């Protein structure tokens, strides 16, 4: 990995602030808006999501043609294709169930906390607990593989 530009972290911070402000401004940081979408009562969420997907898609399609490397990191642009396997299905299902039960996704949870929704701490606690459990489970399942590889 190339040396990062000194403005890398401040710009990531500013980007996060803009993202959080956008979630707050569009009311997507409010779990009741997400639940209303899931109940087909408020269809504003797809417009926000499609708007973000269009901007991201254009950026991912055009930037590699304009530049050889990312401006702040110097890393080359590349696609990382991951297999569609059991882990993707289970992870997507857990994410979807958590999103439906809490009415909030991880990125919007922090924005929701920023707009004063203190009860979102329960959902954030569940996200941290789930991430810890997954990391623990994954490290335990890989420990026998590492031991077997070391015995060779």
Mind sketching the topology for me?
Elements: H1 8-25, H2 31-38, H3 44-66, H4 86-102, H5 106-114, H6 120-151
Helix pairs in contact: 1-5, 5-6
Account of the protein in words:
With 152 residues, this protein is mostly helical. Helix 1 packs across helix 5. The model has no long low-confidence stretch (mean pLDDT 82). The longest helix has 32 residues, at 120-151. The chain is globular and about 45 Å long. It has one domain (8-151). The protein has 6 helices and no strands.
Structural class computed from helices and strand pairing? mainly alpha
* Gap between N and C termini: 31 Å
Shape: globular
Q: What is the gyration radius calculated from CA atoms? A: 19 Å
Give the uncertain stretches in residue-range form.
none
Q: How many separate domains? A: 1
Number of helices: 6
Would you tell me the overall average pLDDT?
Answer: 82
Succession of helices and strands: HHHHHH
- Strands, total number: 0
Strand percent estimate: under 5%
Estimate the helix proportion, in percent: over 70%
Largest sheet: none
Transmembrane segments: 7-25, 45-63, 84-102, 108-132
InterPro entries: DUF6691
Keywords: Membrane, Transmembrane, Transmembrane helix
Name the features:
152 residues, mainly alpha, 6 helices, 0% strand, membrane, DUF6691, transmembrane helix, transmembrane
